[in-house]
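input
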Amino acid sequence: MSRHARRECLLLMHSLREDLPAFESLLERERPDLLLIGAMTVCLPGAVACAARAKEILGPEVVVVLGGRHPSESIYPVQGAVAHHPSSPVRLMAEGYVPPVFDLVVSGEAEHLIAELGEVLAAPDGGGTARDRLAGGLDRLARAPGRWIASRHDGGRIENLAGGGPDLARDLLPPPAALFGVRTAFDVFGGRLTGHVFSDAGNGCVFDCDFCSERRSVTGGLAQPSTGADRLMRQLRAVADVVAEDAPHRGASAFVEDSTLLGGAPRQIERLVRMLAAADLDLRFGGQLTIDQISRRMDLVKSLAGVGLDYVFIGVETLDPALIGGMNKDRRAQVGHWMGRTENAIAALADNGVRSGAAVLFGLGERQEHRLALLEELARWRRIHGSPDPISLNWATQHPLRDPAVGYRYHEWSVPAGEWTRAFADFGEASVNYPLRGVAPPVLGEVREVRAAFQELLVTGERATVNR
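output
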């Protein structure tokens, strides 16, 4: 089928309340016998609600499969066996915390498993409902390559299947843009359509900061890093080609979804620069780098800027890493204070025509005066350097991280409805119910004060832009 037809079977949901009618309309139109849902931890209640609605509309004719980051953090191998965190969706169903709406929950690398699952459900001699065909095809699923775990709840029991490898051949993964097209645009790229691209050089970050759900000790280290630049180049080329074919009047851009661009590996970045220079694509792109990666190898950033990089997203996180016990990615503390190094990196990017955005993370154990001081510093940078813009506010959530000691089940929304939802309206990820271990939950008055300071920061930034 065409890219357009494939994309019509795909829904990216921002809000359960706002997007549920579109979800219901998609189910009614397609009447699928296989529904794949992906969810991060804070989205688990929404995934449950979507699965329940699908069962109401389609009945036993649909097999609902849950995957994504949350299952991969809550179902994992331990000494040759399969462990289920208290928030494992299968365990939640078995213990009665959520209704039995997922027929299969998949952790790990499921690309081959998904294809095999489709073959099982489409088998002409399968007979019965889709659930019957799934139950009868488990032996076939077990042959799918890759490192994955597929779990289901059946009559009070938890059954697990585990793939034994080989590792996923990342060089063979198809570019998402070629499969589904490109329809949306990041504001930072001036109206160009923006594709999401990946080097697939790992499932998380090369660093190991304690508070982060992307940390290396949870997601694993780099995977097949020697060909990461080639994979990323193939995806960048796909975005440029697809936009040129489908919407040539818009122009193409891409955002590299690696936790840090190619893991910050200098040789891979140099190879990417050479390939982009030779290809001469009509493409602007952005990605993520740490403060120390920028300051240590500004020569690489300049080279990237020469072949299309014009936006870098950085993690500021906190006023002073020492106040929260340190950050693994803070590698050059002996060179200078974190805030000073961060401003220097933003200034250096701006001097080379590269704009920057920033993520801020509260709820790490800092005091309120430190939060407000950080926002004041960000406002000062915006007045002087025009960046960071945008700024992403977040309030830390304790993710499963393969650590059952905290005991969170995550079956309720992380932020209660009403005044808490309004207070966190400007935040990306946020949590009231699931603070980091050893950190007190947020205080409503303090969150409101932070939001008011952030709103003033945005207004001040707009005035500075007009004045310039």
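quick obs: The first strand starts at residue 34 and ends at 38.
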